[in-house]
Amino acid sequence: AMASSGPQNPSQIMPLELVDKCIGSKIHIKMKGDKELVGTLLGFDPYVNMVLEDVVVYEISSQGKKVTRLEQILLNGNNIALMIPGGEGPDN
Amino acid sequence: PGDGPNPGGGGAKPGGKPGGKPGGKGDAQSEKKHKETIIDLSKHMDKPIRVKFAGGRECSGILKGYDPLLNLVLDATTEYLRDPEDSSKLTGETRQIGLTLCRGPAVMLICPADTLEPIANPFVPQD
């Protein structure tokens, strides 16, 4: 589902279209805090809550990175700051 | 009676007027207040901008797209890394992360990338 948008400049990239193109591919998500996730994007909603598969969660602190793996998750979009389509994670 | 956080029952209007009646005057007012961004991002298209996020993250990149909710598409994005011990301090290290999407709800500041510079702390008394 595409969010409605205002006046469109044909030579610009609409943000939610970029997310839509990423469905089926890897995406690297940085939360507002020090948590990052990499997973395959299965889908999202107008609030950019996301369904991800084969997820690796990185919790980054002064003590280093804590890594967890999850098969399939619904990620609450409230705390997402940055998204990198095709991103591989904080180790690259 | 009926005094509460959302009087008038119509849940759709953000910030409902206290004591406002559904329909009539209430609707005319909400039509005038159609939400508009206070920054015109078309002026910054294809130019480098700096973005700060709620939570302390900072990045910069070339603005390639945006929407009314302030979601941004940045190209050639540079992330500015912070000190793991003190997240308000930038280490000076950066990471190139390519084409990114910045979530509107998390965006706290947008400015042209070349107009940001560090200054001496104006709050420290100069003896």
From TrEMBL, chain A:
It is found in: Nucleus. One of its GO terms (biological process) is mRNA splicing, via spliceosome. Its main location: nucleus. Pfam families: LSM. Keywords: Acetylation, mRNA processing, mRNA splicing, Nucleus, Ribonucleoprotein, RNA-binding, Spliceosome. GO terms for molecular function: RNA binding. This is U6 snRNA-associated Sm-like protein LSm5. One of its GO terms (cellular component) is U4/U6 x U5 tri-snRNP complex. SMART domains: Sm. The gene is LSM5. It comes from Macrostomum lignano. It comes from the Eukaryota. Plays a role in U6 snRNP assembly and function. Binds to the 3' end of U6 snRNA. CDD domains: LSm5. LSm subunits form a heteromer with a doughnut shape. Component of the precatalytic spliceosome (spliceosome B complex). Component of the U4/U6-U5 tri-snRNP complex, a building block of the precatalytic spliceosome (spliceosome B complex). The U4/U6-U5 tri-snRNP complex is composed of the U4, U6 and U5 snRNAs and at least PRPF3, PRPF4, PRPF6, PRPF8, PRPF31, SNRNP200, TXNL4A, SNRNP40, SNRPB, SNRPD1, SNRPD2, SNRPD3, SNRPE, SNRPF, SNRPG, DDX23, CD2BP2, PPIH, SNU13, EFTUD2, SART1 and USP39, plus LSM2, LSM3, LSM4, LSM5, LSM6, LSM7 and LSM8. Residues 14-89 form the Sm domain. Belongs to the snRNP Sm proteins family.
Automatic annotation (TrEMBL), chain B:
The keyword Nucleus applies. PROSITE patterns: SM. Residues 36-116 form the Sm domain. Residues 1-41 are annotated as: Disordered. It is found in: Nucleus. It comes from the Eukaryota. Residues 28-41 have a biased composition (Basic and acidic residues). It comes from Macrostomum lignano. This is Sm domain-containing protein. Keywords: mRNA processing, mRNA splicing, Nucleus, Ribonucleoprotein, RNA-binding, Spliceosome. Residues 1-26 have a biased composition (Gly residues). GO terms for molecular function: RNA binding. InterPro entries: Lsm7 (IPR017132), Lsm7/SmG-like (IPR044641), LSM_dom_sf (IPR010920), Sm (IPR047575), Sm_dom_euk/arc (IPR001163). Pfam families: LSM.
